[in-house]
Each structure stands twice: as structure tokens, then as C-alpha cells.
Amino acid sequence: MIVLLGVLVVVIGFALRFNPLLVVTVAGITSALLGGLSPLHVLEAFGTGFAASRSISIAFIVLPVIGLLERYGLQQRAKMLISRAAVLTAGRLLLLYLFIRQLAAALGLTSIGGTAQMVRPVIYPMAEGAAMRSYGQTSQLLTETIKAHAAAADTIGAFFGEDCFVAVGSVLLIVGYVNASYHLKLDPLQVAIWAVPTAIAAFVIHGFRLLRLDGRLAAIASAEAQTKPQ
Amino acid sequence: MITAEWIYWLLGGFFFMVGVEIALDPAHRKRWTNAAFWCLLGASLCYGSFVPRLPAWLLGVAVIGMALIAGFGLTGSGDVRTTGEAQRAASAARTGNALFVPALTIPAVTVLVSLGAGRLVIGGRPLLAQQSQTLVGLGIATIVALGVAFALLRPKPATVALTEGRRLLESIGWAALLPQMLATLGLLFTKAGVGTQVGAIAQHLVPEHSRLFAVIVYALGMAGFTIVMGNAFAAFPIMTAAIGWPLLVEHMGAHPAPLFAIAMLSGFCGTLCTPMAANFNLVPPALLEMRDKYAQIKVQIPTAVVLLGVNIVFMLVFPFR
């Protein structure tokens, strides 16, 4: 039971809003020492853990391209483009993005989308442009809300799309683990097909919330217009 | 053969150069600690290719060093000189929709490379390493997109690409290291036996003959354990060994394929709710320069909760047809 102290460190650390890097480091050292690892083995575990997880950081590689394009007005261009399409409100635009993201991920194309590649340079500015067309200037709160929803649509679309694809990590993990452990003969396709009902449910639930987003943005905008002295 | 290691060196080189540029910037508020952080991170990404041939504990020292630099607030972004709003609007009007071409080149080339990787054979050997086509694809796509952007925009001096990349990287700041740290934490948790303990607790909670309870504990356990570990992959083997296989499949006769698929997706509902999944939930707010770093999680929680409920219903129905 005592090894669960490491989990407790994480929960308390995050709750008290200590710097997450410190929390994670302390929690890792704590549970490793409690689990009986020697100090040298703890250092080795940090080293091999970092080396083995480098693929997570690979998305940062696009930053020079995106930064360069931003310098030349990519975000502004995205706003200009969307300001011509009057039917696309912020909520509907994000709904469309959710659909495309999820469908692409279900076909195995998870690299279409992502915060660095799509949301920051194109999707978020478009959503903000659509909101500006509706409400005039956008305030801090309005911008923050749009940013949070743009990021959420990207993540939800990717998560609940990719599991419908046979050659994705989670499906392969399920099949690999249960076939090896329990002598089953599951096929990846059998597992992937059962991700479809949840994928549809995710789209319906989150899509419904995105359709209601426009109402919320309008409420924020009108509340701010009232409190602001003219 | 092009492997993922090449792309890690490219990324490491980018981070290292960001550190060098900061070191050369006397106006930077936290010049030397920042330069040390990014140079160390860049060097670590490259060093990782040679573990375990080179000692892993040295990399561990570097990783903990970076965590301490950032953890005590010694990093923070400087003022990178970039274009203003008016300049950007003028440039956007002048360049037009061609600005989207380099941006869309990235996903297009990534997909092309990862789908066509198997067909590229030179001298009887595949040009790209198997298993990591998407990774390698993203690296190649970035280089191609950078070339397209240079041809289109002809930026002078050419180093503005690095400077602009640095602007974005500095706005992410120490959060750039967090996803890998959390992955390492998951590894340490597993080594220390946290998973088996959680599984044992979950097993104690379930009454023998209640399908409803077993399903609820399996689904909630997947979500809850994922919230703690930040990763549904770590939760799956443990919860499945504790409940999914012995109770639901062997004892109650559930069909494995739908049961396990829905269990994993219940774990994903947990991923949506946790700061432990930093690369999905904390890096995007940092990259979007949001004030509230937890705002994205707050948006995702209602969807996750409702979807988890739906998953429990699905899990009661589909595996027991």
C-alpha cells in the first residue's frame, strides 16, 4: 500500500498548484524509492524514460514553420477568409473541424490536425474571426473560451476517431495484451469496429455542446457590452 | 535508412539552437538559465539515441536538472522581436491564400510519406524505417514545408525561422518537457508496483455476481486510473487483469472484443479530465497562450462525464448480446 504515496504526492502537488515538473519529479523519486529502487536505478529510470518517450515531443518540430508563417500574417489571413463565410459561426466552424478531425483519425490520418499544426495557426484564428464578425471586438474572456473549445475539439476528435482505425496504438495494445495473456485470437478489426458506437456518441455529445457554444459566446459578449461604460 | 533517430536529432538541434540564440540575447530577462534549459533539452534529445550504450543515469541527471531549473521558476520567455498586427494584416492581404500552402504541406506530406513509406525501396532496403513512418513523415514534411515557405516568402535574414520558432517554443516554456516527464513517471509507477495495488483495491470493491457493479467498476476504474497515470494504456492491462478478464469474460461470459474496446474508450474519457495527460491537455493551452492552463480540461470534462455514462451502458449491452 505504501507505494501509493507517490500517487498522493501527485494529487496534492497538483491541487496546491506547485510547478508540475517539480511535482512529477518528487512523485517519481518517492514512489521509486518506496518501491525499492536504489538511487542509481532511479536516475537510470529517469534517463531511459526520457529516451523512450521522445516521440511525444516530436510535434514541436513544426514550430519554426508555423512561427515563420505567423510572422507573415497566417492567422490574419485565416480571419479574413472566414469573415466572408457568414454561415460559419464559431460553434459551427468548430463542429465542422471536429467532424473532419474525427473522420480523418478514423481513417488513420491522425497527422491531419494538432494544436501546433492546425489549431493555433488556422482553426483558432478562424473561430475568433467568426466571433468578431458576430460581436465586433472580442474580449479576453471570449478569446479564452474560443481557444479552450478549439483545443478541446482537436483532442476529442483525435481520441474518439483514432480508435476506429485498426493500426493505431491503443487497438494494437489491446489485441497484443489480451492475445498474449489470455490465449485469445482477437483480430484488430474486431476491436476497432466496437469503437464505432462510442465514436458516434462522442460526436453527438460534443457536437451538441459546440452548437450551444454560439449562444454562450453571445451571452458573454452582451454581458460585457452592458458592464462596459460607453 | 531514415529512422526516427534522425528526426530526434533535428528536433534536438532546433532546441539547442534556441538555447544558443537566447544565450546571445543580452536583453533576455532570464538569459543564462533559459539558455541552459533549452541547450540541455536539445542535447538530451540527441543523447537519448545512444542510451543504453552510453550511461542512462547521466541522462537522468540532466532530466532532473532541467526539472529543477524550470520548477524553481528560472525559465520564462524573453521579448522576441516579431511583426506587429498591422504589418501582419498587410502581409496577409499581399500574400493571399498562398500563405496556407506551407501550412497544409505539413499534413499532406506527412500522410503521403507514412502511407507510401513501404514502397520506397533503395538498393533492396526500405528507405524509411518501419514502425515510425508518421514520425519520420512529420520530420520530412516540416523540412519540405520550410522550403515551400522560404520560396514563397523569401524571409531575410533566413534565421528568422529559428527566431520565430523560438518565440513559439518560449511561449510553451517548461511545459515542453512535461509530457515526457509524465511518461517517465508512469514508468516509475509501474516499476514500483502502483498498478498491482490499484488492481487489488478494485477487485475488493466488486461483489461476486453483480454484472452491473463489475461493469461500473471496470469502466470507472479505467477512467480513474487513467486520470492518475495520465495514460489509458497503463490502466488497461491492470484493470483488465483485475476485473475485465477474470470476472466479466471468464465468470460472466462477456464477448472480449466489444468489452475491451469500450474499456479502452472509458479510459480515454479519463484522459480528457487530467492534467497528467500534459501533451493533450496542458501543452495546447500553453501553445495558445491561454491565461487559465486548465481551461481546456474544464471544457472537456462535461463531454467526458456524459460519454463515460454512455460507455457504461454500451458495456452492459454489447458484450452480452
Task: Tell me about this structure.
The complex is a heterodimer of chains A (230) and B (321). Chain A folds into 2 domains: 2-52, no CATH class; 59-227, no CATH class. Chain A is an all-alpha fold and 230 residues long. Chain A is built from 11 helices and no strands. Chain A has helices at 5-15, 20-34, 39-52, 63-71, 74-82, 90-106, 115-135, 140-162, 169-182, 188-193, 196-227. Chain A is globular, with a radius of gyration of 22 Å. In chain A, 55% of the residues are buried. With 321 residues, chain B is an all-alpha fold. Among the domains of chain B are: 85-152, no CATH class; 178-320, no CATH class. Chain B contains 15 helices and 2 strands. Chain B has a two-stranded antiparallel ribbon with strand order 1-2. In chain B, helix 5 packs antiparallel against helix 6, helix 10 runs antiparallel to helix 11 and helix 10 runs antiparallel to helix 15. Classes of the chains: A mainly alpha (230), B mainly alpha (321). Chains A and B meet through helix 1, helix 2, helix 3, helix 4 and helix 5 of A and helix 1, helix 2, helix 3, helix 4 and helix 5 of B.
Task: Report a brief summary of the structure.
Helix content of chain A is about 75%, strand content about 0%. Chain A is mainly alpha-helical and about 230 residues long.
What Rg of chain A do the Cα atoms give? 22 Å
Number of strands of chain A: 0
For the largest beta-sheet of chain A, the strand count, sense and barrel status come to: none
Tally the helices of chain B: what do you get? 15
- Approximate strand percentage of chain B: under 5%
What is the strand tally of chain B?
Answer: 2
Please tell me the overall pLDDT of chain A.
Answer: 89
The main β sheet of chain B shows up as: 2 strands, antiparallel
Total domain count of chain A: 2
- Chain-averaged pLDDT of chain B: 90
**Low-confidence parts of chain B:** none
Q: Cα distance, first to last residue of chain B?
A: 49 Å
Based on Cα principal axes, name the global outline of chain A.
globular
Secondary-structure element string of chain B: HHHHHEEHHHHHHHHHH
Assembly state here? heterodimer
Shape of chain B: globular
Instruction: Report Rg of chain B.
Output: 24 Å
